[in-house]
Design goal:
alpha/beta, eight-stranded mixed β-barrel, 20 strands
C-alpha cells in the first residue's frame, strides 16, 4: 500500500494540498482529523475539522503543538515526503496518518477476491465463446462484465486514513456520554427519573427474593417556585445543585438518590427500620435550616418529605411511588417542613379526597351547584338590607351538600378559581334581576384567598360587574381573618385598589382566628361578622357577655359596623339590640333561600312593615 502525493511547487499548490486533504476527509466517513507536519515535528496543516473546533488557530500553528516521530512512533503510520514552497524556499515536510489495519486487510481481501474472480470469469467466457462459436451473441455480454469488473477494481481505494484518536476510544467515550445522558440528571448529577425507577424496580425484586425491606423517601422543596420568581431560574438551578450535593453527602453508600423532575427528589434507603428512617429524614430537614448563599442572596428553603416502607406499603414501583407521593402531600397539608409516613388510613383518606375531587369537577361541569341567599336584617328597622350568597351542591344521590363539607377541599385547588368566578357571576346576575324588580339590597359574596391572589382576579371581577351594569357600591366581598393576616401585604394592596372603585369589605367569622381589632383601623373593612360561637354565649336571662360587648363597642369606636351570625332565638335578638349590634343574620329570620323564594320573603317583610306603620 503506497501513499503518493506529488511534489508541490508553489503557494497555490499549498492551498490545493489543503483542499485535497479536506476532500479526503469529506470522501470517507472514517476520516476526522489529518495532521501535516514538517520534518522537525512542527504542525503545518490540519483538516477543516480541527479548525471548526477551534483546536488550532492558523496564526498559532507553529508554536501551538509539536508532533515528531518520537511521540507518534507507537502507532502505525505511513510517511510521505513532500516539498512545498514556503516563503520562497523549499521546505520538506511529511504527512503522518494512522492506518486502520483491519479495514485495509478486508479491502485487500476483497481486491484479491476480485482479481481471482475476474480471470476465472474471463476464462469461462472464452471457453463459452469458443464452444458455442457465437461471437456476436457472446462478446457484448463479456465486454459488459469486463467493464463492470474493471470498474470494481479501479474503485478499490489505494490508501485508507483513520483519525489519530482510536475509533474504539472514541466509541467508549461516546457510550459513556450517552449513558450519562440516559441515567443521570444533567443539572444536579444525581440519577434521573428513569434510572432511579429502574433501581427501585431492582430493589423490589431483591426484596421479594431475600425478604430484605427498604424505605423510599420523596422530597419536595417548600415554596421553590417563589425562588425562581423572585431571584430567577439561574439562581433556582444553582440552589438545586447545592441541595443535591448536600443530599448526596448525607446518604450512605448503599442508598441511592435521584431527581424526579422540578424540585422533587427520591431517595432509596437500604434496610433500616421506620424509626431510624424517620430520624434520618428529620436530620435532613434540620440540615436545611441554614440559609443558602447564592449570588449575594440568602435563601432559606424547607422541605416536605413523604416516606414508605417496602413491602409493607407496596411491592411494585407504581404503588410505592403513588403512596410516597400521598405521604409527601400530606406533609405539605400538615404545615410543610416535616416528615409524614404513609399509612392505610392516610391512603383511604386520600382516595376519598380524589373521589370527591372527581365528583366536584363533574358537578361543576354538569351544573349541580346552586346559589342560595340568606337575608341580613337591620336590627333597628327590621328591613332586609343585604343578602349573603351561599353555594349549595345539589347532589343527585346525596341531596343537598353544604359548603362546610366541600369548600375546604375546593380551596386546596380543585376548581377553586372556576367556582369562584361562577359564584360571583351568578350573584351579580341575580342582583341585576332583583333591581329590575324593585328589590334593592346589598350582595355579599365570599372571597377565597385563592381568588384574591389569582393574577387576573381584579380584571375578571370588573368585567362581570360591567357585563350586568350594576353598582359596585352595592357589592361586598367577605374575606376571612386568615386571608387578611397570612397574606397581609398583597391582600391589603388588592383591598385598597378595589376600595377606590367603591367596593366594600366584610371580615367573616370574626372571633375564630386572630380576633384582633387593632389592625382593623388600618384596613378598608367596613363591617365585621361576629361568629356564631359568641352568639351562642347569650342566655335567656341575658347575662352580660363581656367579650361580645367589647367587640361591638370597639368596632363602633373605629367606625366599623357589626353583623351577628347564627342568630336563632328571640332573646338573642333582644340582647344584641340592647348592646348596639347593627345587623343580624340567622335562622331566627330566615334560612338561605333561592332567588324566587327570597323575592317572596322580601316582599312579605316590606308588606308587614307597611301594615305595622298603618
Amino acid at each position: 500500500m503506497k501513499f503518493d502525493i506529488k511534489a508541490i511547487l508553489n503557494n497555490q499548490d499549498t492551498i490545493n494540498l489543503k483542499a485535497y486533504l479536506d476532500r479526503q476527509k469529506a470522501g470517507s466517513r472514517m476520516i476526522k482529523e489529518i495532521y501535516v507536519v514538517k520534518d522537525d515535528g512542527t504542525l503545518l496543516r490540519t483538516s477543516d475539522y480541527l479548525y471548526e473546533k477551534n483546536t488550532f488557530k492558523e496564526e498559532n500553528t507553529i508554536s501551538l503543538r509539536q508532533l515528531n516521530t518520537d511521540n507518534i512512533s507507537k502507532i502505525d503510520l505511513l510517511r510521505s515526503d513532500i516539498k512545498v514552497i514556503d516563503h520562497d524556499k523549499i521546505v520538506p515536510y511529511s504527512m503522518y496518518v494512522k492506518m486502520d489495519n483491519k479495514y485495509i486487510t478486508n479491502s485487500v481481501q476483497q481486491r484479491i477476491g476480485l482479481q481471482i474472480i475476474y480471470p476465472l470469469l474471463f476464462f469461462i467466457g472464452v471457453v463459452i465463446f469458443y464452444l458455442l462459436y457465437i461471437k456476436k451473441l457472446i462478446m457484448k455480454p463479456i465486454m459488459i462484465v469486463d467493464d463492470f469488473l474493471r470498474g470494481m477494481v479501479q474503485r478499490i481505494p489505494k490508501f485508507y486514513i483513520l483519525e489519530f484518536n482510536h475509533l474504539s476510544q472514541n466509541l467508549q467515550n461516546n457510550l459513556k456520554e450517552l449513558k450519562e445522558l440516559a441515567y443521570f440528571d444533567t443539572l444536579t448529577g444525581v440519577y434521573n427519573r428513569k434510572a432511579i425507577e429502574e433501581i427501585l424496580e431492582k430493589k423490589i425484586i431483591e426484596t421479594k427474593k431475600n425478604k430484605h425491606p427498604f424505605a423510599v423517601a420523596m422530597i419536595d422543596l417548600d415554596h421553590f417556585k417563589k425562588v425562581n420568581d423572585s431571584y430567577g431560574h439561574h439562581v433556582g438551578d444553582q440552589l438545586l445543585k447545592e441541595i443535591a450535593e448536600i443530599l448526596q453527602s448525607e446518604i450512605r453508600m448503599a442508598d441511592n438518590i435521584g431527581r424526579l423532575g422540578g424540585d422533587e427528589f427520591l431517595i432509596i434507603i437500604d434496610y433500616i427500620n421506620t424509626v431510624d428512617v424517620s430520624l434520618k429524614l428529620q436530620k435532613l430537614i434540620a440540615k436545611f435550616k441554614a440559609p443558602f448563599h447564592i449570588e449575594g442572596y440568602d435563601i432559606t428553603i424547607g422541605m416536605s418529605i413523604g416516606g414508605v416502607m417496602c413491602p409493607e406499603d407496596g411491592n411494585d414501583v407504581i404503588t410505592l411511588l403513588k403512596n410516597v407521593d400521598i405521604a409527601m402531600y400530606q406533609a405539605k397539608h400538615e404545615g410543610r417542613n416535616r416528615v409524614v409516613f404513609f399509612s392505610k388510613e392516610l391512603g383511604k383518606k386520600i382516595e376519598s379526597e380524589i373521589e370527591l375531587e372527581k365528583e366536584i369537577r363533574y358537578a361543576f361541569e354538569h351544573n349541580e351547584f346552586r346559589l342560595k341567599y340568606q337575608p341580613i336584617i337591620d336590627i333597628n328597622s327590621g328591613k332586609v338590607v343585604a343578602v349573603e350568597a351561599l353555594i349549595r351542591w345539589e347532589h343527585p344521590v346525596k341531596g343537598t351538600i353544604y359548603p362546610s363539607e366541600f369548600i375546604p377541599f375546593v380551596e386546596k385547588g380543585c376548581c377553586v378559581k372556576e367556582i369562584g368566578i361562577w359564584v360571583f357571576d351568578r350573584a351579580c346576575k341575580q342582583q341585576k334581576e332583583w333591581l329590575e324588580k324593585g328589590i334593592d339590597v346589598n350582595m355579599s359574596v365570599n372571597l377565597s384567598v385563592k381568588h384574591m391572589h389569582a393574577t387576573n382576579f381584579y380584571d375578571v371581577m370588573n368585567a362581570i360587574i360591567k357585563k350586568y351594569d350594576i353598582d359596585i357600591k352595592k357589592i361586598s366581598l367577605e374575606i376571612t381573618e386568615y386571608t387578611l393576616m397570612q397574606y397581609r401585604e398583597t391582600t391589603m394592596a388588592m383591598l385598597n385598589k378595589m376600595q377606590l372603585d367603591g367596593m366594600t369589605f366584610r371580615l367573616d367569622d370574626f372571633g375564630t382566628g386572630y380576633s384582633s381589632l387593632t389592625y382593623l383601623k388600618d384596613t378598608p373593612i367596613s363591617s365585621i361578622k361576629i361568629d356564631k360561637s359568641f352568639i351562642d354565649g347569650i342566655t335567656p336571662d341575658k347575662k352580660p357577655v363581656h367579650l361580645l360587648n367589647a367587640i361591638i363597642n370597639l368596632s363602633h369606636a373605629i367606625d366599623v359596623t357589626t353583623i351577628a351570625e347564627g342568630v336563632e332565638e328571640a332573646y338573642q335578638v333582644e340582647y344584641l339590640k340592647e348592646i348596639g349590634c347593627d345587623m343580624i343574620q340567622g335562622y331566627y329570620y330566615s334560612k338561605a333561600l333561592d332567588g324566587k323564594a327570597f323575592e317572596s320573603y322580601y316582599r312579605s317583610r316590606e308588606s308587614d312593615k307597611k301594615k305595622s306603620i298603618v
